[in-house]
Amino acid sequence: MRTVDLFDNYLEGKLNAQELAAFELRASSDPVFQKAFEEHKTLVGILNASNERQVLKNKLKHIHSVEFGKEAKIISINKPEKLTKRIGKTFMVAASAAVIAVISTIALLSTGGYLLEKQDIKITDLGLEVAGLKSSQNAIVRKLNSKEDKPFAAANLEGSAFALNNSGYVITSWHMVNGADSIFIQNSTTERALTKIIFNDPALDIAVLKIENEEVSKAWQVPFTFNAKSAEVGEEVYTLGYPRQDVVYGEGSLSSLSGYSNDTAMYQVSIPVNPGNSGGPVLDSQGNIIGVIRGKLTTAEGTGFAVKSTQIIRSINSVEGETVKSELILNNTKSSLKKLKRSEQIKRINPYVFNVLVYKNN
Length: 362
Description:
Blueprint lengths: L2 H9 L5 H13 L1 H38 L11 H32 L11 E3 L2 E2 L2 H14 L11 E7 L5 E4 L1 H4 L4 E5 L6 E9 L4 E6 L24 E6 L6 E9 L9 E4 L11 E4 L4 E9 L6 E5 H9 L4 H6 L14 H8 L3 E7 L3
Antiparallel strand pairs: 1-12, 2-3, 3-4, 3-14, 4-7, 5-6, 5-14, 6-7, 8-9, 8-11, 9-10, 10-13, 11-12, 12-13
Helix pairs in contact: 2-3, 3-4
């Protein structure tokens, strides 16, 4: 459906309850979409006013014909050119301006990825493609500071991940690591560690990695758990991730129980997320994991999407092979973050949120 048709259906009351709710949610969270709608509504109002004038004119002609005969002439007390200047030109200028405004805004929506089949909103993956020179320089500096012999090569892609349990398993986004030749994780307390892919679910866009060096995770005490219940709209949530070299905190609220294209496997969250946030955790105020950052709207800031924790639990529980399944058991100890203030929660969580470095030959 074209955007203009969606606007017309809304104005004419042709949307069903679900479509109406989706429209109003999008209008409230997307200023570009709202602007296009307001301009379209203005244009429709101008055109309707013109049609009403024409209908009235036809009615008056009909009445005149009935009362005075078809041959009788109507003599205007104003000159035609003055009437045109006073009404016609004003209308034409207003209509032209409205048409141009609507066309311009719809063109902007189109280039931003909004005019898609069935009104799908384009979603942007949030893997950070690393600028080679800058990344190489940063890697050299980090390596020199660590007093090691050789600098690391720049990764092709960077993102986020976090601990799944105390056994050295971490979870991230599948679009990040798909096709990777090697994958490393690191943070302020963990030196660069090589991992391998143990499990993936492309439909949910999640992947589970295992740290190959068991010494790295032998003292882990993961403080958070995965929430097995659905979160609520309006609930306060926050995330941690690596859109740059240091971990970045973001906070907001859960704005919808469905995500991109009404996908019920995802939440929509009102948190500013950027390239590098993919694979990072979304937590509730009690420090429970409610989701994994997946992406954001193409042209809208402050709107992100996260794969639901309930879907992740279901996916991992479906793993075949008892040995692998037993290794992937989620941390099910009671969260130790519940009564802590936010800054203390973050201190406990930070060691278990990682920067993912992905290397690809192609």
